[in-house]
Structures are given as C-alpha cells and as structure tokens.
Amino acid sequence: MNIRKKTRIYVYLLSFSAFVMLYLLLSPKPVISVMAKNEVPSTDISQKYFPGAKIKEVYRLRLEPGDLLLESINELIKRENIKDGAVTLGIGTLSECCMHWVITTGFPSVQKKETIKAPLELLSLQGIIADGVPHLHISVSDTSRAIGGHIEEGCKVLYVLEVVIESYEGTPLTRRPNKYGNNTLQKLN
Known about the structure:
Radius of gyration: 23 Å
Number of helices: 2
Structural class: alpha+beta
CATH architecture: 2-Layer Sandwich
C-alpha cells in the first residue's frame, strides 16, 4: 500500500473519530431521575434514622476452601439468633461469586445477575441485618477489573475468608416497601 493511500485512510479515520466525538458531546442527554416531575427532594430525615442501638456481641467467622459465603453468614445469624446487626467486614478469596446489581434508573428497577468463576480477591463485604435478614453488598476483583453488587447465594471460598458480624440491641429494625416499592429500613413494631 502506497503512502498516499495510507494517508487518506488515516485522515478518514481521524475525521470519523472527530465526528463521533462531536456527536456524543453535542447530542442531548437524557435526564435521569427516579422522582416524579413535581416532587421536591426531601431533607427531612426525622423518620429515616434509628438511634439507640448498642453493640451486644461481635462474631468473627472463618471460612475455608469450598465453604459458601452467604449461606455460612445466614447459618451464623440463625444459630446465634441475630435479629439486628451488621456485617462490618469481609476479606479473603473466592473461586466463584454470584451477585446482582441495578441496570436502570427508573421504576421498577431492573437487575442484572452475574456469576463469576475465577480466582477473586474479596475487597469488601458489608451490610445491615434487620429482623434476622442480611442485606449485603460485595466488591471483588480479578487481574483486570473490580466489580460489586448485591451478594447472592453460591459464592465459594477459594483459600480463606474472614467476616466480622456485629449483633445489636436497642432499636430493632425490619424492612418494608416504601412508596416506590423498595424494601427500606423501618423500626420493628
């Protein structure tokens, strides 16, 4: 291929790239909002926080190769009758990780579920236990990416994994649907 032809192809590619970039920059962007058009964002948190909890007990859980992460946490919660608490820390390795996350901004939310079968580092694991039910999020990484979401059953320990779980006393919580249909923390009556 001669130099003139190569130059034409190069100029064409640059022009096309510039056109695409300009189009992306100047095209109208959709407004993303989960609120109704006339709804005013609220700063009233009077019914949204729950004081009065005190740490009753701290549990440290050690998991070994092949153990199931969420199933083991649920077993400890059941065995120790933890109704109110938190998973405050999780570190270790996984050979398989099942999670889901939202892929839309409107209602109802749409979820994507993924199972990753590869050596993974557990970067973080945390969440709240309300009425004996954990709501936990996980972040993992491999050699090329980090990803996170809501943990699902089926996560398998690769080498070792450690979890810290706190049990609380005081103001017990549960989850109930809010006006959007999402389960949110509420005082347990």
